[in-house]
Amino acid sequence: MKVRTRSSAIIGTICLIASLALTTASADEPAASRQAAEVGLTKVATAQNPIAGAAGPGGTVWIAERAGTVRVLGAQGLGAPVLDISDETTTDGERGLLGIAFDKKFAHFYISFTDLEGTSTVDEFAVRNGKIRPSTRRTVLTQTQPYSNHNGGDIKIGPDGYLYIAFGDGGSGGDPHDNGQNLGTLLGKMLRIDPRGGTPYAIPQDNPFVDDPNAKGEIWAYGLRNPWRFSFDAGTGDLLIADVGQSDWEEIDWASAASKGGENYGWSEMEGNHSFRGGIEPANHVPPIHEYGRNGLGCSVTGGFVYRGKAIPALKGQYVFSDYCDGTVRTLKMENGTVTGESDLGVNGGEVISFVEGGNGELYVLAIGGTVSRIDPA
User: Fold this and answer.
1) Distance CA 160, CA 258 (A)
2) pLDDT for 196-237, tens place per residue?
């Protein structure tokens, strides 16, 4: 590991764009769609392919760059890299440094990346006085990937303090290995582990399949194609997963904070609310709370967060999301997992690859081309 800057991997970015957007489409515009709040996007930094972020110690915001660097956002933009694993990963296909997270006490920092062989890897570092301690690095979990796409890779610490990890179905197209519905693999799943409870981790005893000899105990939910971005509502603890569709439908899934896990979101029998290639809807299918078709500009849903900041009161409680190809920043109004309205915020973030929630609840929009913007009141 070394600390240095690295130029953008142009070819890798082109591959990511191509693999995320095999076709183009626009989010359906509901008749009831309307602007929910007066907002603007304030550019706060420029990065090399920013791809993920996390609220850090001392009110900081940390930004991950796809080629393998992590930088801290300050008043003058992004500082020098505080971590560089660029010689350990590649930007081929949809690979790279894909997710970062801190534990609740900012005592440990987690990174999710694909190594040079394409294996999904989650590593941990101890943090002291707001700084990463490189000598403490250890590998928590690995998962072999059969293809270079659908890695997922997002990670979050849940309200329960456990580490949640999202993995795609392994890639290619159409889930050729039927991983989405197979409880014997971690692919196509949302995982829940205790990274500090064992060596290299422990499986929480209340995970839904922990006593099933035919299932992986790490699994929290399944039936996912490529859960590129997920988040927990800071106000309620509810889980929201934006799952990228195959060719027709983009979907957003939801689970209550009271859920005991085990949700089956349907892939690859289902794509959203629709049978996929003649698939039969599972009896335990949990349908998405929202879907939109690819009949215009949208091609790949980019999940965000339920807004819990203070700067934009009219936005409070709404789920903010976008689409990689469309770029329009949209919101969903929800009540107990039911969408009651969809709105267009009237701003476009470009090729939106991710959102970041700061420690104060304010949201940032990351465009793969390099722009880091904050959603501010207009």
Assistant:
1) 11
2) 999 999 999 999 999 999 999 999 999 999 999 999 999 999
Q: Which residue has the tokens 């290995």?
A: 177
CA triple 57-61-63, angle to 5 deg: 125
Under 8 Å between Cβ of 221 and 158: no
What CA–CA distance (Å, rounded) separates 190 from 74?
Answer: 32
pTM of the predicted structure, to 2 decimals: 0.92
Read off the amino acid at residue 219.
I
Radius of gyration of the chain (CA): 19
- 10 Å Cβ neighbour count for 219? 25
Distance CA 157, CA 143 (A): 19
Q: In which residue are the tokens 């959603």 written?
A: 375
Q: How far apart are CA 132 and CA 57, in angstroms?
A: 11
* Contact predicate 325/24, CB 8 Å: yes
d(Cα 213, Cα 277) in Å, to the nearest integer? Answer: 30
* CA nearest to 356, candidates 78, 67, 13, 5: 78
Structure-token pair, residue 320: 């903010």
CA atoms of 168 and 145, how far apart (whole Å) = 9
